[in-house]
Amino acid sequence: DAKSAGRNDFRFFTPDMNNRAYARLMLENALRHALEREELELDYQPQWAMPGQRLIGVEALVRWNHPERGRISPAEFIPLAEETGLIQSIGDWVLHEACRQQAAWQAAGLPPLTIAVNISALQFRRADFAGHVRQVFADSGVSPSHFELEITESALMQPSVETEAQFASLRKLGLGLALDDFGTGYSSLSYLKRLPLTRLKIDRSFVRDLPGDPEDAAIATATLSIARDLGLEVVAEGVETEAQRDFLLERQCAVMQGYLFSRPLPATAITELLASQAHAPA
Ligand code: C2E
Ligand code: MG
Ligand code: MG
Ligand code: MG
């Protein structure tokens, strides 16, 4: 652990450590410039209303096209962005870009689509985050009513009176509020009561071993049932197989997202999906 490592300071001077520290520093520097060099991009993963499998929303997922390393996963650079504080400007860019894309889809006369945007715990803890979000929407001229913010449970480790107030303000703007990775964090059921949530996203770790794993089957079934009783919509994440889909369908899961239906796609591919759906018979 860190403490025992601290007593054995020589550990920090192994060539391996120096290389890793150097690699991290290089990545951090590159990330600082990624925004101005326009290396960030949003992909969009479709969310489908079931059972008819109608495209009703997309989750915006940020990608970094590093000049030498190629595409770097957000699982790698979002934590780095959080440690360095760059998450605030990256988060701003993501929200602006999602608004710009929504405006473009609306201007093209395509059927309405809800865009879900991931919000890091650190963005959420910024003073007057809700006021900031209101300003971004005002500047971009799109209505918040076709947007949803996804906040992970771990972001809510100690939900305070301020958290409740932020949620209430965001909800008042007309934004949907989804609890991401539901079941993996520290939340207690009382958050479901205290926060004005609109959706729960069943984490893909509970979907992966459906329908065979009895614990996951029980957790997924219970989540769907409690959400229904609380008037919340459920999105199942990471649906990869027909057997998973059918299990969730039998339990009236209203919205699904996963590789079975589609991977995250560039905006142009979403435009095509929307256009073909607009022309399909109902
Ligand atoms: P998340 O919000 O839980 O997003 C879902 C992740 O699951 C995405 O990974 C998506 O590509 C992946 N996924 C979707 N369907 C399937 C499936 O059927 N099977 C499997 N194995 N995976 C599936 P991605 O794009 O690598 O993003 C990873 C995480 O990075 C996200 O998890 C989110 O926490 C974070 N992230 C992504 N974009 C942003 C962003 O703009 N802002 C912030 N703060 N975090 C972001
Ligand atoms: Mg998410
Ligand atoms: Mg998730
Ligand atoms: Mg996740």
Describe the fold and architecture.
The chain has 282 residues and is an alpha/beta fold. 48% of the residues lie in helices and 20% in strands. The protein has twelve helices and nine strands. The protein has an eight-stranded mixed β-barrel with strand order 1-2-4-5-6-7-8-9, surrounded by four helices. The radius of gyration is 20 Å and the shape is globular. One magnesium ion binds at residues 59, 118, 150, 180.
Gist of the model:
This protein has twelve helices and nine strands. It is α/β, with parallel strands linked by helices.
Please outline the helices and strands.
Blueprint: H1 2-7, H2 15-34, E1 40-49, E2 54-66, E3 70-72, H3 74-84, H4 87-107, E4 114-119, H5 121-125, H6 129-140, E5 147-152, H7 161-172, E6 176-182, H8 189-194, E7 199-202, H9 204-207, H10 214-230, E8 233-236, H11 242-250, E9 255-256, H12 267-279
Parallel strand pairs: 2-4, 4-5, 5-6, 6-7, 7-8, 8-9
Antiparallel strand pairs: 1-2, 1-9, 2-3
The protein binds ligand C2E and magnesium ion (MG) (3 copies).
One magnesium ion is lined by residues 180-181, 201, 203, 237.
Q: Roughly what percent helix? A: 40-55%
Regions with little confidence, pLDDT below 50 for 5+ residues: 1-11
Distance between the termini: 59 Å
Strand order of the largest sheet: 1-2-4-5-6-7-8-9
| Structural class determined from secondary elements | alpha/beta
Task: Give me the strand/helix succession.
Answer: HHEEEHHEHHEHEHEHHEHEH
Q: How much strand content do the residues show? A: 15-25%
The bound ligands are:
ligand C2E, magnesium ion
